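To fix ideas, we now present one chain and its tokenised fold:
***
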Amino acid sequence: MVRDKELQKLVDAAARTKQQQHARAATRDKGPPPPPNPVRFMVYKRMHHGGMSFLWFLPGAVVLGLIMFADRPWFRYGAAAWGIAFAIRLTIYTVGLLRGYAQFKRFPADLDVTLEGWYPMLDEQLLKDPEEWQTNSPLEVERRAAADAAPVAAALDLCLPRANGWFYSSDKGFDSRVPWKRTGTRVSGSLNVWVLGALYRLIQQLDWVHRRAGGIARISVTKSGSISSYSRPSAD
């Protein structure tokens, strides 16, 4: 059937509109966006709490000193020497951070020991804010028969002060956070992103023990309990 040109334009416009509506509906049906990838640079950096925050204030102090003492040769030489030392320190810090992140991206695939339950621990609510705490998150080491127990126990004991060192007093009246303690080959306590970094280093150390002496059948970490917010005391 041959239509008038103007009528055909009307039919074509309606067809284009219908296609656009179908495309929008298909886009909506794709569902919510995927959760953020937990293995990203800022997660690794937050887990390890930075490491050189005081250094960022020193360049400002040098600039202020240059303004006040720019005509003093001794100060110019001292500032130049400090600038070189700062550049070296910054380079070492940056290289170490990037190397650590490269290891973090390959974790736990590069481990010789079997690790279970790691990715469920990387809860986005915990990763984004160190004031968010998981009530209880045990880590347990399963040893093989006749394996040397002392190195495993030593690694677990060394982790406890590191993990508990990230606890802080809170403005919240009721505090259900549990300090970390060891029972046999099991450690457990409350977890935030900084404590998660301590567990990450513990697992790496246990893997080193396993590479040296064997004897670890598997390591399991378990995400359990609810997540609560504990704000740090204000500066006021």
Notes: The chain has a mean pLDDT of 84.
